[in-house]
Amino acid sequence: MAITVDARGLDCPKPVIKTKEALEQAAGQPLLVMVSSAASKENVIRFL
Fold this sequence. Notes:
This protein has one domain (3-47): 2-Layer Sandwich (Translation Initiation Factor IF3). It is α+β, with helices and mostly antiparallel strands. It has helices at residues 14-26, 38-47; strands at residues 3-6, 31-34. The mean pLDDT is 94. The protein is built from two helices and two strands. 48% of the residues lie in helices and 17% in strands. The protein is globular, with a radius of gyration of 10 Å.
């Protein structure tokens, strides 16, 4: 089952921080990250 990170409406760097925290808990599970801005999307992609 995928872990979902709902970071919609959050300003940077909060989406990246929430993604990092979820990755630490994911233990190999799929991760779904939802953001509401192109800038947040690019920042999360760069982080990964």
